[in-house]
Specification:
InterPro entries: A-amylase/branching_C, GH, GH13_cat_dom, Glyco_hydro_b, O16G_dom_2. Keywords: Glycosidase, Hydrolase, Maltose metabolism. This is Alpha-glucosidase. Belongs to the glycosyl hydrolase 13 family. GO terms for molecular function: alpha-amylase activity; cation binding; glucan 1,4-alpha-maltotriohydrolase activity; oligo-1,6-glucosidase activity; sucrose alpha-glucosidase activity. The chain is built from 19 helices and 22 strands. By secondary structure, the protein is α/β, with parallel strands linked by helices. It has four domains: about 5-105 and about 180-390 and about 440-480, Alpha-Beta Barrel (TIM Barrel); about 110-165, Oligo-1,6-glucosidase, Domain 2 (Oligo-1,6-glucosidase, domain 2), CATH 3.90.400; about 395-435, no CATH class; about 500-575, Golgi alpha-mannosidase II (Immunoglobulin-like, Sandwich). The strands form six sheets. The chain has an eight-stranded parallel sheet with strand order 13-12-11-5-2-1-15-14. A five-stranded antiparallel sheet has the order 16-17-18-22-20. A hairpin with a 5-residue loop joins strand 7 and strand 8. The protein is globular, with a radius of gyration of 24 Å. It binds 1-O-alpha-D-glucopyranosyl-D-fructose (TEU). 1-O-alpha-D-glucopyranosyl-D-fructose binds near residues 208 and 304.
Length: about 575
C-alpha cells in the first residue's frame, strides 16, 4: 500500500495576515511580519502554515474579495515577500498553504469589470447574470429569487448599466463566478492555482468549496423566517449537482501535477455520507474538510447571531460523529474549533472567567491534540486568547457580516433596545471579530503587534495578561502546554493522530470521556466541562496517567486507587496503556 500522505500527521497553524504581526508601523499585519515569526511557529511544533487571503483586494471582506489572484495586497507586501516566506518555510522543513477563494472574486477583478461592461462581452458568462427580475405588483423590481446573502439582504444585485442582476452569495462586491462555463474554470485553475503552485506553495485551504455548482433553475427558497423577505437558501447553492465533477476536474487538470494538501471548507453539510464523497482518497477530490457543526454550535437557525445555549452532549455528539465517520473508509478528517470566522474557543466551549481561563485553554488543548485527524490551530489559540470583553460597543466591531446583521435587526426592530442587546450578546459570543483582534505578542504598548501609531483593530483589554512573551518564559503557561501537547501528539501519533475513537457516557452533561485505540495501545482522556468538582470513572484498568492541566495531578493520581477520579473545575487528564 501507499505511504500515508504527509498531511495527515501535520499540525497546521492559520495566520490571519491583518492581525498577526505588523513590520512597518502602519497598524496592519504584513508578510515580512509573518516571516519574522516563522521560527516561533517552528518551535511550537507547527508543520504547515496556512495564510488567509493576502491577495490584492479592496478588502470589503478582509481579502476574501480578490481583485487579482496573481498579486499581493500592497500593505501586506509583494509577490517577492511571498516567495521569501515560501522559501523560509521550506528551509525549515515546513510547508505553506494559501486560501483559495474561487467561488467569487471582487467586483474590482478585471474579469468582472469586463463581464459587467456589456451583455455581449466575451466574459459576460463568467459570472451569473439573470434578467428574470420579477416585477412586483406595484411595478417595483424584485430580484430573481428570495435568497438571502450571508451578509444580509439579497444574493442578487441589479446592475443599471446592462439592466440585469448578478448573483453574490456574500457581499455585493463579491460576485459569484460561473463554474458552468469551462473557460472560466480554466482561468481559475491557471490564475488562482497554478500561479502559486509553481512558486512552491504546498496546497490550499479551499474557501466555500461546496458552493461552485448551483441549482441553476433558480427557484425561490421556502419561507422559514417570516420577519423578512430574504430567506436562507443554502440548499439551492450548496453541494449542487456538478460539485464532485468540478473537484475531480480540478484534480485531473491541475493538482495531479503537484504534491498538495487540499482542505475544503464545507458549510451546510451535516450528513457524513455526503462529506465522505468529498474526502475519499480514491475519489481524488479533497484531502479533508472542515465540518461546520462544531463551530455552528450556539448559532441561531434562521439568524446566525441569535445565540442559542447548548449542552455538553451536543458538543460530544459532534466530535463523536466526525471522529467515527472515517472508520473503515479511505477518508480523513480535521480537528479544529477556531478560525477567523468564529468566537474564541475558551469563551465558547469552556470558561473565560479569570480563575478558569488558563485551565480551560489547556483542557481544550488536551482534547484537540488527542483527537484523530489533521490538527488546525488558529493564531492566538496557543496562548489562550479570549473573546472581546462584553463591554465593547458595536462601534468597536468591524466585520461586514456582524455589522450587516446589526443593521438589519436595528431596522426590522425599529432600534428596539432589547433586540439590539440580543444582537450584541450574539456578537460577543459568536462574532467573527473575536478572532480578528491583533495578536498579543508582549505587554508593551500595542501588544508588540505594531510599533504604532494605531493598530487597525482594537487590542484586547487583557493583552498584558495574555501574551506570547510572558508565556514563553513560563513552563506552566498555556503556550508551554500547547507546545508539550503537540510534541506528545507526535510521539504517540499512532494512537492520537490515527487511532480509533470511542466515547463513554455520551449523555453526561458535565464530563467528556473518550478513548483512542491503536491495536492493543490506548489513550483515555477525561475532561470536566464545568466550574464544579465532578466524578468520572476510567473505562479501563491498567491506565497510566501522563498529562494533566493542574500542576499537582501526579501526586493525586498516586494517592488514588481504583477507577474513579475526582476532577476539579475544568480539569483534564490523559492516560495511556499498552
Ligand atoms: O466563509 C464561508 C462560510 O461559509 C461562512 O460560514 C462563514 O463562516 C461566514 O461567517 C458566513 O456566515 C468563508 C470565509 O472563511 C469567510 O471569512 C468569508 O467571508 C467567506 O468565505 C466569503 O469568502
Amino acid at each position: 500500500s501507499l505511504p500515508a500522505p504527509w498531511w495527515k500527521d501535520a499540525v497546521v497553524y492559520q495566520i490571519y495576515p491583518a492581525s498577526f504581526k505588523d513590520s512597518n508601523g502602519d497598524g496592519l499585519g504584513d508578510i515580512p511580519g509573518i516571516l519574522s515569526k516563522v521560527d516561533y511557529l517552528k518551535d511550537l511544533g507547527v508543520d504547515i502554515i496556512w495564510v488567509s487571503p493576502m491577495y490584492d483586494s479592496p478588502q470589503v471582506d478582509m481579502g476574501y474579495d480578490i481583485s487579482n489572484y496573481e498579486d499581493v495586497y500592497p500593505p501586506y507586501g509583494t509577490v517577492k515577500d511571498m516567495e521569501d516566506l515560501i522559501g523560509a518555510c521550506h528551509e525549515r522543513g515546513m510547508k505553506l498553504i494559501l486560501d483559495l477563494v474561487i467561488n467569487h472574486t471582487s467586483d474590482q477583478h478585471a474579469w468582472f469589470k469586463e463581464s459587467r461592461s456589456s451583455k455581449d462581452n466575451p466574459k459576460r458568462d463568467w459570472y451569473i447574470w439573470n434578467h428574470l427580475g420579477i416585477s412586483a405588483e406595484d411595478g417595483t423590481r424584485l430580484p430573481p429569487t428570495n435568497w438571502r446573502s450571508y451578509f444580509s439582504g439579497s444574493t442578487w444585485e441589479y446592475d443599471e448599466h446592462t439592466g440585469e442582476y448578478y448573483l453574490h452569495l456574500f457581499a455585493k462586491e463579491q460576485p459569484d463566478l460561473n463554474w458552468e462555463n469551462e473557460e472560466t474554470r480554466k482561468a481559475i485553475y491557471n490564475s488562482a492555482m497554478r500561479f502559486w503552485l509553481d512558486k512552491g506553495v504546498d496546497g490550499f485551504r479551499v474557501d466555500t468549496v461546496n458552493m461552485y455548482s448551483k441549482q441553476v433553475e433558480f427557484l425561490d427558497a421556502p419561507v422559514v423566517d417570516t420577519s423578512q423577505y430574504y430567506q436562507p437558501a443554502w440548499q439551492f447553492y450548496a453541494n449542487g449537482p456538478r460539485m464532485h465533477e468540478f473537484l475531480r476536474e480540478m484534480n485531473d487538470k491541475v493538482l495531479s501535477e503537484y504534491d498538495t494538501v487540499m482542505v475544503g471548507e464545507l458549510p451546510h453539510t451535516p450528513d457524513p455520507e455526503k462529506v465522505l464523497k468529498y474526502v475519499s482518497l480514491a475519489d481524488r477530490q479533497l484531502s479533508m474538510v472542515f465540518q461546520f457543526d462544531i463551530v455552528d454550535l450556539g448559532q441561531g437557525t434562521t439568524a446566525k447571531y441569535h445565540f442559542q445555549p447548548w449542552k455538553l452532549p451536543a458538543l460530544k455528539g459532534i466530535v463523536t460523529k466526525w471522529q467515527q465517520f472515517i472508520d473503515g473508509t479511505d477518508g480523513w478528517t480535521t480537528v479544529f474549533c477556531e478560525n477567523h470566522d468564529q468566537g474564541r474557543s475558551i469563551s465558547r466551549y469552556a470558561s473565560d472567567a479569570p480563575e478558569y481561563r488558563v485551565l480551560s485553554a489547556k483542557m481544550l488543548a488536551m482534547m484537540l491534540t488527542a483527537l484523530t485527524g489533521t490538527l488546525f490551530v488558529y493564531q492566538g489559540q496557543e496562548i489562550g486568547m479570549v473573546n472581546v470583553p462584553k463591554s465593547w460597543p458595536i462601534e468597536d466591531f468591524q466585520d461586514i457580516e456582524s455589522l450587516g446583521f446589526y443593521k438589519t435587526i436595528a431596522s426590522l426592530s425599529n432600534n428596539d433596545k432589547a433586540a439590539l442587546e440580543k444582537v450584541m450578546e450574539g456578537l460577543q459570543i459568536l462574532g467573527r471579530d473575536n478572532a480578528r483582534l491583533p495578536m498579543q505578542w508582549d505587554s508593551s504598548q500595542f501588544a508588540g503587534f505594531t510599533n504604532g501609531p494605531k493598530p487597525w483593530m482594537r487590542l484586547h483589554d487583557l493583552y498584558r495578561e495574555i501574551n506570547v512573551k510572558t508565556q514563553l518564559a513560563d513552563p506552566n503557561s498555556t503556550y508551554s502546554f500547547w507546545k508539550h501537547m503537540i510534541k506528545f501528539r507526535k510521539e504517540f501519533k499512532d494512537i492520537l493522530v490515527h487511532g480509533k475513537y470511542e466515547v463513554f457516557d455520551p449523555e453526561n452533561e458535565q464530563t467528556f470521556v473518550f478513548a483512542k485505540h491503536h491495536g492493543e495501545k490506548k489513550a483515555v482522556v477525561v475532561l470536566n466541562f464545568t466550574g464544579e468538582d465532578q466524578r468520572v470513572d476510567l473505562p479501563f484498568d491498567g491506565l497510566s496517567f501522563r498529562v494533566g492541566n493542574y500542576p499537582d495531578t501526579l501526586a493525586d493520581e498516586e494517592a488514588t486507587a481504583g477507577r474513579t477520579r475526582a476532577l476539579r473545575p475544568w480539569e483534564g487528564r490523559l492516560y495511556l496503556a499498552g
